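Protein modeling request. Please complete all fields; requests missing the sequence field cannot be processed.
Requester role: graduate student
Desired output: 3D structure, token encoding
Chains: 1
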Amino acid sequence: MAIRKPALHRRGRSGVVKKSKNLPPEKQVEYLLEEGSLQSLIEGKKLNQAYIKYQWDFYSELAYQRNLIQDQLIGSIQEACITGYKIEAWQRVTRWKYSGHPFSTLGSLVSWGGRFNIGRDISQGDTLKTFQALYLAQSQATAQVEALGSGIANSPLSIEDIALTNKSSFVCVSVSGTLDRVIDLTDKTTLVKFAKLISKFKVPQSILDSAAQLHIPLPTLIKSPGPLLKSFLIDNWRKEPAQFDIPANGQIFGQLVYLAGIDGIIYPSSKTGEKCLAVFPSNFDGRNSYLRLDDEPPEKWTPRVITSENFTLCEKASDDLQVLG
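Delivered output (325 residues):
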């Protein structure tokens, strides 16, 4: 896993351009914000393609090194997990269109996915395997801001104010249950063995040469639990998925947790510090894990409890459940 630093590429910019007295007011130009030639556009496109290739080469190299020790990484996660984790009246916020089926995980596949799961836009061409997750939080305020809002540094607004600035319709439901095995990221010591394993990764000379040719900072690797956890919880985790179709560090870790057969990931909200939970219902198979709605749903066909016997319902849409009755 790596810490990536963005490269800044600028085209030539001019200063103030005076108004032309021979043009009518509506066609006069006071400021020219940017200018360039056809050749500069071609060169800029080539540079952008080279930068994307660099990012994919770097990601692919680390993916290869992870694959070599994947069994050890999964083993370290399984050793660090805790058992019998109970939640009482945790909150789940979903878009209104998912309100008939609050346990649906289909929304987690939209766009780039979630903090700890990979969505469809990252996996274009099936280059990466998508997987679904169900996200919960300790309180309604945290659930809202995690699902709908975004933290604003030094803002006088409360978390509730920030979350409710999003005008989209949503529902919030109360959920309780027990998960057989979870990994708790509120304690960074959980990642000690995992971090020790990846600390042995190396950046090949070819990647360093590419960075030098692009005139960008040389890449660095994460070597300890603190920075690793911080990389999972950063606010702009969507940067790599959005710009390069590369999963974020949290999504890479989430994939390993998912492959380890763990039921979920506990992590602190980057907005409030309260606990959040990413649940992988498809790992309930053969387990005693369950999630239960605390209140009666408006529709009779809405699943109230998810267990090892019906976890596949999470992968269905409301329309499918109505048909099943």
